[in-house]
Automatic annotation (TrEMBL):
Name of this protein: Adenylate kinase
The keyword Signal appears for this protein: no
InterPro entries given in the database record: Adenylat/UMP-CMP_kin (IPR000850), Adenylat_kinase_CS (IPR033690), P-loop_NTPase (IPR027417)
Lineage, top ranks: Eukaryota, Fungi, Dikarya, Ascomycota, Pezizomycotina
One Pfam family it belongs to: AAA_17
Molecular functions per Gene Ontology: ATP binding; nucleobase-containing compound kinase activity
Protein's organism: Diatrype stigma
PANTHER family documented for this protein: NUCLEOTIDE KINASE
Taxonomy, superkingdom: Eukaryota
SUPFAM superfamilies: P-loop containing nucleoside triphosphate hydrolases
Family per record: Belongs to the adenylate kinase family.
Keyword terms: Kinase, Nucleotide-binding, Transferase
GO biological process, one term: nucleobase-containing compound metabolic process
Amino acid sequence: METSPTTPTPRSFAVIFVLGPPGAGKGTLCTHLAQKHNLAHYSVGDSLRSWMRANHATPLAVRIRDKLDNQGFLTSEDLNPFIGQAIKDAIYHQDEPRYQGILVDGFPRCTEQLESFDTWPFQGELPLTPSSNSGGSASSSAKPDVVLSLRVTKENARARYLARARDSNDSQEKFEKRFVEYETETIPVEEVYRQRGVLIDVDANGTKEENVNTLTKKLDESGLWQKVIVEGSTGAQFLV
C-alpha cells in the first residue's frame, strides 16, 4: 500500500545571532542561555576549527585556511553551508524536549555575511513560511528573530582574550587585529539589526556571575525576547 507524503507543518523555531568583540564572553553567556531556554548553541569559530582539524587535507579546508590567513573573513558562500546544517540539525534534534531555537555565536561578522540572509538562503532545504510583514516571501525580516550584542571595553576584552588563550596563535597581536575587524566590520552589522528592531544590547563588562545577572535582567525586560523565546512567537515559521 502506498503511503501519502507527509504534509509539512509550520513550526516556530528561533534563530538568534550573538555578536561581540573577541573576549566579550559570547561562549559563556550562550552556554547559560542554551541551558536555561533549551536552545542549541552553535559557535561558528569553535565548530569551524574542529571541522578544520578533522578535514585539514581536503580542498575545502585548504581554501578556507588560505582565506583566513589572507583575508580575515570567510564569505557567506563558505559559511552558510555550515550554518544551514547546524540549524537543520537543531530543528530535527530528536531528544525531548525539542530545541526551541538556536544561538549562532559569531555570525554575521561583516556586511557581506549579513546580506546573504536578506533573502533566506536555505529555502530549498529549510523552507520558511512568509512572515506577516514580508509581502508573501521569506524576506530580510524573516531571520534572525533576535540579535544579541555583547558590549565590553577593549581593556576588558583584551584581558579575557589573553587569559583564555587556547594556543600561541591567540596573541596580543591577533587580538588587536580581531578587535579592529570587529570595530570596522561588525559594528555596522549591529547597526543594521538595530534599525530593524531585532538587536538587544547587553553590558558584558562584569564578572561571569554579574554578566549572567545583567543578561537575565535585560532579557526579562525585553518585549522582543519575551515574544520570541518565552511565548514562542516567531515571525516566519519553518515547514517541517
